[in-house]
Specification:
Bound molecules: nicotinamide-adenine-dinucleotide
Order of helices and strands: EHEHEHEHEHEHEHHEEEEEEEEEHHE
Radius of gyration: 20 Å
Strand content: 15-25%
Structural class: alpha/beta
Number of helices: 10
Distance between the termini: 9 Å
Number of strands: 17
Oligomer: single chain
Helix content: 25-40%
Mean pLDDT: 97
Length: 367
């Protein structure tokens, strides 16, 4: 495909490099500009990654040359920046979560629909070889009818590695809204939409300490639950249990497992594009490794490329706003259930995103 879709990036922080590399791996995408509220940072990062143009956010949104705005700002700013970009008539791919409240998530989805622009949202890791192979294992019936699943994301928080860790403990983040999107999106991709959730949450440590980077030694107040234990009832019948936690030093737990009527599937880390897929069918003595059916040699940006193909051909893009809103709805439901002491019905719905076809050439997606 010779068509180029031009990308402007808003937010030039820690994750920028991964996006630049991931987007540049796809011939359809051309990153032409970047912006940040911190103009000096945007200048420095543009030079670091050879991004041709640096501008203010307003200039970037007003630039008629830009087709897609990739929103890599902090979670609290996602809705505001996405709404401004949609208002300027741009297609948008946002980092996760889509927004930090249901209302804002719904506003972003509605605004894109009204304006007739496409809305995409991270994560796009479910388009990597690890998760796509799991999807194929399930769709091809290797484990029979899925009946249950578990998902575990455990750790002791990002302050040990991230240079600006404060936002992870503010409204809009915590282990569920920050890392949960990978796990919940993976579950919805594999098992379909969710009809209700319940859960219990807690803050185990009301204060954290930055242990690296310029803020080392500074105390970080904790605004959001840092341990979330939830249960999801899927529309199609399966029941899943999930834990996302920044309160656990170490654990011997799988990332995700799906249990079917004929066997079990071990799903790799949904925060990466590859990983090890294993199946153990009923009667088998041990787990067998499944060769990946799709490429793991892709990165953050495959979702942006998929949106660009959708623009070019009119087909649906996979990491889309309906999926992201459903995932947000589910994630917010766990704390709501904990506060209210009951199940929360999930009103939003989305379709399972279409699986990627086999045999795609490197740097290309299906038309
Ligand atoms: N760091 C990672 O490993 C990682 C991985 C996957 C996803 N993400 C997601 O990517 C997003 C960004 O994360 P990060 O680690 O790069 O954060 P960061 O704090 O390093 O960078 C965010 C940047 O956005 C800018 N910004 C904030 N509000 C803005 C606004 N209103 N307009 C313009 N610029 C604004 C900040 O100045 C900063 O440069 C988050 O949603 C995060 O969840 C991060």
């Amino acid at each position: 495909m010779v068509m180029k879709v031009r990308v402007g990036i808003v937010g030039t922080g820690n994750i920028l490099g991964a996006y630049v590399a991931g987007c540049r791996a796809f011939g359809i995408l051309d990153i032409i500009a970047c912006a940040d509220i911190d103009q000096d940072k945007a200048e420095a990062r543009a030079e670091e990654f050879a991004i041709p143009r640096v501008c203010t956010v307003e200039e970037l949104l007003a630039d008629p040359d830009i087709d897609i705005v990739v929103n890599l700002t902090v979670p609290k700013a996602h809705a505001e920046v996405s709404l401004a970009a949609i208002g300027a008539g741009k297609h948008v791919h946002s980092e996760k979560p889509l927004a930090v409240t249901r209302r804002d998530g719904e506003r972003v989805v509605a605004a894109a629909r009204e304006k007739g622009v496409l809305l995409g949202c991270a994560p796009d890791t479910f388009l990597g070889g690890g998760q796509q192979t799991c999807r194929k294992v399930i769709d091809d019936g290797w484990i029979g009818e899925p009946v249950a699943a578990v998902a575990f994301m455990t750790g002791h928080g990002p302050e040990s590695w991230h240079p600006n860790p404060d936002f992870f403990y503010q409204v809009g983040a915590g282990p569920m809204l920050d890392v949960g999107p990978y796990y919940v999106t993976a579950l919805v991709h594999l098992l379909g939409p969710v009809r209700r959730v319940t859960g219990s949450t807690r803050i185990s440590f009301p204060e954290r300490m930055a242990t690296r980077g310029p803020h080392q030694g500074r105390k970080i107040p904790v605004e959001v639950p840092t341990h979330v234990a939830g249960v999801l009832d899927f529309v199609g019948g399966p029941v899943a249990a999930i834990i996302t936690s920044f309160d656990i030093w170490s654990a011997n737990l799988p990332r995700i497992e799906v249990y079917g009527s004929q066997g079990s599937l071990s799903v790799p880390d949904p925060n990466i594009f590859g990983g090890r897929v294993q199946v153990r069918r009923s009667g088998a003595d041990e787990w067998s490794e499944v060769q990946l059916t799709h490429s793991a040699e892709v990165g953050r940006g495959i979702g942006v490329a998929d949106l660009a193909y959708a623009l070019a051909t009119g087909r649906q893009h996979r990491a889309n706003g309906d999926l992201a809103l459903h995932v947000l709805d589910i994630m917010l439901g766990f704390e709501e259930a904990s506060v209210r002491g009951r199940h929360i019905d999930i009103a939003s719905r989305c379709a399972r995103p279409a699986p990627l076809p086999l045999g795609l050439a490197a740097g290309e997606l299906d038309p």
